[in-house]
Amino acid sequence: MERTNSTQLAEFILTGIPYPPRLRTFLFSFFLVIYILTQMGNLLIFLTVCIDAQLHARPMYIFLGVLSIIDMGISSIIVPRLILNFTAEIKPISFGGCVAQLYFYHFLGSTQCFLYTLMAYDRYLAICRPLHYPVLMTLKICSLMVTGAWVAGSIHGAIQATLTFRLPYCGPNQVDYFFCDIPAVLRLACADTAINEMVTFVDIGVVVASCFSLILLSYIHIIRAILNIRTADGRRRAFSTCGAHVTVVTIYYVPCAFIYLRPKANSPLDGAAALFPTAITPFLNPLIYTLRNQEVKLALKRMAGDQRGISKN
Predict the structure, then answer these.
(1) Structural domain boundaries of the chain?
(2) What phi, psi does 93 have (nearest 5°)?
(3) Residue 175 forms beta bridges with which residues?
(4) CATH 1.20.1070.10 is the classification of domain 11-302
(5) How distant is the alpha carbon of residue 286 from its chain centre?
(6) SS3 of 9, please?
(7) Contact, 177 vs 15, CB < 8 A?
(8) Could you tell me the pTM of the whole model?
(9) What is the pLDDT of residues 1-58, one digit of tens each?
(10) CA angle 103-81-184, nearest 5°?
(11) Quick one: which of 194, 169, 206, 184 has its CA closest to 259?
(12) Rounded to the nearest 5 degrees, what angle is found at the Cα of 227, between the Cα atoms of 226 and 228?
């Protein structure tokens, strides 16, 4: 049903996530610490991949370095605004700021989906076709794949932002969410949103379903190959490498499917689910990949040893 008021909104108010007032200080401190640790952890992973010669020459760790950049970006786009919601003063976001937040979130989020798929493909080649791996996954091919993921992500983000903000917004201006995302913003449109909802469902559904299906297919072949490894140590190393990726993919995809691939609904659980891809997953990725990846831990030890050697000199 269309609203007759034609005055375009200049700003939005993000209502944030509901919380008891007595927990304001705790939540402010909690998410501030999460944000700082997210930036530090992902920056450490990125610098380790860039500096360590044994890592930045391998496609698997190039993907990991790019993932760290994306995680820092998503966290920086969403979490500072979330933290502001735990202050006493209401801080609106401008119309242009809302557009930018929605665009960059879907740009980086879809790029992350594509990157997870490339990481699964890389593991499939390394474990299932080890003799062909150096030919099928060269640094040039890896760079082209990463570039393709960035380009596809930017196109996806542009489509979603354009479709969402081509509609008129004339009031009210309270977004019942902690950031400008498609379902929450569309509820404020002064026009019929049926086409937008259908395109959003199909577009995001295709991205999520296709990426997840390819990841699942890759890991079906990977598990079969791992079970055929004769040595227990070989199976353990293969499962350890792939286990980190499976854990991260599960934490990321399940909440995204819950938010975007349901019939139109306004569930209070949407905000809690959205915390996973926006705040929790970027925070956990460095921990998961560091604790479960022996080569990253060795690279960190080499970096620490080099720093100690420099300081002694």
Answers:
(1) 11-302
(2) -110, 135
(3) 14
(4) yes
(5) 13
(6) coil
(7) yes
(8) 0.89
(9) 444 445 678 889 998 888 888 999 999 999 999 999 999 999 999 998 888 888 888 8
(10) 55
(11) 184
(12) 90
